[in-house]
Design a protein that fits this description.
single chain; 300 residues; alpha/beta; Rossmann fold; Alpha-Beta Plaits; six-stranded mixed sheet; 11 helices; 13 strands; elongated; binds adenosine-5'-triphosphate; ATP binding
Length: 300
């Protein structure tokens, strides 16, 4: 069942079309990624989902409710970690959690939440004294304290060091495992590939592709590259006739075959049947980066 439905969403700031006909549906229990370069319209899209912006046109529903007209019901099902959030510098972690918990009719146990997010030792610490990773973990806790069905995480790991980023990824996986649907905005490929069940690629206000990470990668022109030094000269025509082969070339004493995952096994069997050994074998799979460049023609 779709817990978020967006169809034909348009939003402009003056003459600038920030979102230009975006449609997607997020299924209950998935991590759905919105991936795109700066200024693509990601934040504007999720702000319309959160009810923070009124769409110029189109329909948005969160658990069947209109986020602008039905503010109350939407606030009860949706938790949000906003991009570049701030709290009062002097508020402590405990005070922030208590304050936010008091805003909901059926809040989560904030102490258990703090424990789950590794914040127990920081409960007495003031917001201004927290590290970047601790601040982000607090914002995730505040997004979860209302026991939401859906949580929106916007640029969660921007500015975090690699360790804090990996900690945040584990937390996102844990949130999904607890049954909460996640709408994740990011411009990090690795993050989208690792976490998301499905990804909408957005560029200049439009969705250019929507698929699973592996589905997006399969669509890319750059598939699997297999290269090796043959122990004896192979028959290049036979190599070119293998399944899904796009090209076979000789380069610096190596044979370079471009194909798909299916090509690798067939190639190794053919070489074995001819008594040829593939020395220094390298198999390179396309990544989400390649798919992104192929599908949008833009770098992140
Ligand atoms: N309040 C605003 N007033 C005017 N223009 C805005 C406003 N907010 C966003 N824009 C413009 O709308 C476009 C989309 O911005 P948006 O923040 O939605 O993109 P984004 O994909 O989230 O980008 P980023 O990754 O940089 O946050 C951009 O060109 C941006 O400059």
């Amino acid at each position: 069942m779709a817990v978020i439905e967006v169809s034909g969403l348009h939003k402009a700031y003056g003459d600038r079309k920030a979102v230009d006909g975006v449609s997607f549906a997020v299924e209950e229990g998935e991590i759905f990624g919105i991936l795109g370069p700066n200024g693509a319209g990601k934040t504007t899209t999720v702000e319309c989902v959160e009810g923070l912006r009124r769409p110029d046109a189109g329909r948005v529903r969160v658990a069947g409710h209109d986020p602008v007209a039905d503010r109350g019901p939407v606030t009860r099902v949706l938790g949000a970690q906003l991009q570049e959030s701030e709290l009062q510098p002097k508020i402590t972690v405990r005070e922030a959690l208590e304050l936010y918990a008091a805003c909901y009719p059926d809040p989560a146990d904030w102490r258990a939440l703090a424990e789950r997010l590794g914040l127990t030792a920081q409960l007495g610490k003031r917001f201004a004294k927290l590290s970047g990773g601790q601040k982000q973990r607090l914002f995730i806790a505040l997004a979860l304290v209302g026991n939401p069905r859906v949580v929106v995480l916007d640029e969660l790991t921007t500015g975090l060091d690699p360790r804090a980023r990996r900690d945040a990824w584990r937390i996102v996986e844990d949130i999904r495992a607890s049954g909460v649907t996640v709408l994740l905005v990011t411009h990090f490929m690795e993050e989208a590939q690792r976490l998301c069940d499905r990804i909408a690629l957005i560029d200049r206000g439009r969705i250019t592709a929507l698929d699973t990470p592996s589905g997006l990668i399969e669509r890319t022109a750059s598939g699997t590259e297999i290269s090796f030094r043959p122990s004896a000269e192979p028959d290049m025509e036979q190599l070119a006739a293998l399944p899904s082969v796009e090209s076979v070339v000789r380069k610096d004493g190596r044979v370079v075959v471009n194909g798909t995952d299916e090509t690798t096994g067939a190639l190794l069997s053919l070489l074995a049947s001819q008594g040829i050994t593939a020395h220094q074998l390298r198999v390179t799979e396309a990544t989400l980066d390649d798919a992104y460049l192929d599908l949008t023609g833009t770098d992140t």
